Amino acid sequence: MSETESVSHSDASLEAKRQMEICNACRYCEGYCAVFPAMALRRDFAAGDLTHLANLCHGCKGCYHSCQYAPPHAFGVNIPATFATLRAEGYATHAWPAGLGALFARSGTIVTLVAVLAPVLALLLAMALHDPATLYTAQTGTGAFFRIVPYWLMMVLAGGSFGYALLAMGMGAARYWRATGQRAPGPAPVAEAAFDILTLRNLGGGGHGCNDIDDRFTMHKRWLHQAMFGGFMLCFAATTTGAIYHNVFGWKSPHEFLSVPVQLGFWGGIGMLIGTSGLLWLKVRTDPGPVAPALLGGEYAMLALLWLIAATGLLLLGIRHTGAMGVMLALHLGLVIGFFLVMPYSKMVHGVYRGLALLRNAQERRA
Ligand code: SF4
Ligand code: SF4
Hints:
The two termini are about 20 Å apart. The protein contains 14 helices and no strands. By secondary structure, it is mostly helical.
């Protein structure tokens, strides 16, 4: 028995198996996405295979809107909602440490609580570190931010929470890799999967996009997702560049508006604002039929948290020479640290699992 076969089916997995068997007999949607060609390679569906197929699905909803067996048909085929439920179950099963997988079931509440509590705690910490008057006094010149929160403390809190997020997601990815029976990849599948991930090629469907709101195909989700993802990466590059400036060259923030870290952060923040606002707008307007309602709370909360991080980052840039800088810095830092802590137990892990599913798909296509 293979490792994938040794994992037993849950209720969501059994439902996905039932629907995949119908699809495998029908195959009408073969050209829609990578899921159906991958499905066609199989006659039977072990639990690990279904988890892999669920992570290969990017929820474009195309198969739902074109399916003659979708509800209200008695077969009740609803691949996007079923796979979304199965993906969430997989995130919880493979979470690290194992006990924290239960947080996925309350993702909306957890993310909302963290988004409220983390900035409040950061604000209280900043007030405890200095005379509160320092917090409301305009700080200018080199090292202004570190008169509110010392550099070493910023590194410990942000670096520590980010390191934890990377460790937890890495461990989760390793558990997923083993449970779905994946093999060590060669360089060609890795390059192919990296291209797919960076370009979000699959979100383009066969060139026609997704059924974002109803049965019309659009590219909105792809471009908005790209704006959010690109913006996030630019913000990450801004932080890394700022750290290099500080530690290698001794150039302390705040930097000029036209400096590299500020420009990366500014355009990154704009991209994240556009992406998250647009994705929230699509989520509100979309047809609820192919959506898993239990997961919506966590998705809304995470998009809202990302929006707040971008908004407070841009506001911080705008008011950094005023007396409001101290409070805004504490709020922004709190949101960022809260985001890192909750990241391994939220929708954000979909990037990791989806990346691994694309890698396995590239391996299977070559085999
Ligand atoms: S989703 Fe419906 S139309 Fe598409 S392959 Fe499955 S059963 Fe056929
Ligand atoms: S929702 Fe889109 S990506 Fe997912 S299986 Fe259906 S067609 Fe493929």
